[in-house]
Protein: Phage gp6-like head-tail connector protein
Organism: Bacillus cereus
Amino acid sequence: MNFMAVDFTNTKFTDIDLDFVKHYLRIEPELTEDDIEITLIIDTAKGFVLEHTDMSLEELNETKSANIIYLRMISELYHNRTVTNGTQIDPIYSMLLKNVRKISL
């Protein structure tokens, strides 16, 4: 597998799907035993980003920094499947999400 084949710079938020995430996580496409869990993680992370930024999918598509937060969150949830700090949101995620949050006036 060529892990350099995906152009991350032109990827929209809504383009990030199971295949894209497996590529990002460096999981071979034919390895499917975690696909259901990865899909759940993708949906969870997407909901979290949508809720905490108060932005639409269209707005997130125009906010490139949201992609790295989204992908990093997916990676963190996939690779660290144990809860070590209770129910608190990682301060790094909170800080990053505040940077892309839509400000309501």
